[in-house]
Specification:
Elements (H helix, E strand, L loop, with lengths): L5 H30 L13 H13 L3 E7 L1 H4 L10 H12 L5 E7 L5 H11 L6 E6 L41 H9 L5 H4 L1 H9 L3 H8 L15 H6 L29 H15 L4 E5 L4 H6 L5 H17 L4 E3 L17 H17 L6
Parallel strand pairs: 1-2, 1-3, 3-4, 4-5
Helix pairs in contact: 4-14, 5-11
Length: 371
């Protein structure tokens, strides 16, 4: 027989449990708000739907003068240790100096491996969100990628199945392994509790990567259980060194593909999505400026890694498509001193700072941003 004290005790336990859950929810919301108070230094550590959607939602909810920088690992900042050393962070700094009377917010929506296909879905999700300017980097390496989409979660940013015939575009949808009941509970209950919804992102913020992966890594090297231990790995340190301090022998092989050696036809899915994103930007009156990604031509030519005639021809086609759609393109292909690269295309902090200054000056000088 149950004690008379059983119900009061369980009621107290329930109240404490509920209070704890609400407190965690509030703490998570506060941390997110604090981090996005200066969004330029925040980069997406993961490509799960909830993390990407958080960045998209922050753009939509933000007031003030909003600039969104789209693109790949060059925008994300692959060769820098801190989000404050990325191109978007430096552009944010430049804009705040030049627009002291405006509430400027710059968002880094760069995704490692983000090609025109990924950018199309992100841009489509942000149409009509009141963004004052989108900036998008053209990296010609995209158009040689065989896989249509490396980040399939972007197809679900609108919360409903996308209207496009995705299989016809070479995109296979992910199948959920949840039962209908589990799916309903996750969408209508768990996803409203922020510690659960952003659990993958929180793992990255606390540990540097998901805890489950860290435990697996620690089985091989116990030191990797420590938070952000990956930052001290030799390969990570190597990645952030200047390119001429590295040994490239055997790592760059022209037989495996040279920059510019591809065809821009209807069979090239990245070309198809590039045209689609230009069409979407035009139809939705999206303010968009594109720029040519700087390249380390000294390293490319040293190892015969660029097909100059093909590169020039294809670059001209890509630029003509943007021009025909009514969007300007800023050319920084050869604008950064080669000592500021970590490899063929990724910039070190000083390179990002130089490029941010050049982009910002051109945006003002050419009237794309008005004081």
């Amino acid at each position: 027989m149950l004690s008379n004290n059983f119900l009061p005790i369980n009621k107290r336990v329930f109240i404490f449990l509920l209070a704890g859950l609400l407190a965690l929810h509030g703490i998570t919301a506060a941390v997110i708000a604090q981090k996005f108070s200066r969004p330029g230094g925040q980069r997406m550590p993961s490509d799960d739907l909830e993390t990407i959607a958080l960045w998209v939602d922050q753009v939509k909810q933000c007031s003030g003068y909003k600039v969104v920088i789209l693109g790949d690992s060059v925008i994300h900042g692959q060769a820098v240790a801190s989000g404050l050393e990325t191109l978007p962070a430096y552009i944010a700094e430049e804009l705040r100096q030049r627009l002291p009377d405006r509430d400027v917010h710059v968002f880094n929506l760069g995704m490692p491996g983000g090609a025109p296909a990924e950018v199309y879905f992100v841009l489509d999700a942000l149409a009509g969100s009141g963004v004052d300017l989108f900036i998008y980097n053209i990296n010609m390496a995209w158009f040689a990628r065989e896989n249509t989409l490396d980040h399939p979660a972007v197809t679900r940013l609108k919360g409903v199945p996308h209207a496009l015939d995705l299989p016809a575009l070479g995109i296979q949808m992910e199948e959920s392994n949840r039962t209908p009941a589990e799916e309903w509970f996750a969408q209508h209950v768990l996803n409203y509790w922020q510690p659960y919804r952003y659990r993958i992102l929180i793992n990255y913020w606390l540990w540097g990567k998901p805890l489950r992966e860290k435990i697996e890594d620690a089985k091989k090297d116990i030191r990797l259980i420590l938070p952000f231990a990956e930052e001290k790995l030799p390969e990570t340190i190597e990645m952030r060194r200047r390119w001429y301090e590295k040994d490239w022998e055997g790592k760059l092989d022209p037989d495996e593909g040279r920059v510019g050696a591809f065809y821009l036809t209807g069979e090239n899915k990245q070309w198809v999505f590039y045209r689609m994103l230009l069409d979407t930007a035009g139809r939705e009156s999206i303010p968009l400026v594109l720029f040519i990604t700087p390249r380390n031509y000294e390293l490319l030519e040293r190892y015969d890694m660029i097909d100059r005639p093909a590169y020039s021809k294809n670059l001209s086609i890509v630029l003509d498509a943007a021009s025909s759609a009514g969007f300007p393109v800023l050319d920084y292909g050869s604008s950064i001193p080669y000592e500021n690269f970590s490899d063929i295309v990724h910039l070190l902090p000083e390179g990002n700072k130089i490029l941010a200054n050049k982009i910002t000056l051109d945006l003002f000088d050419q009237g794309y941003i008005k004081r």
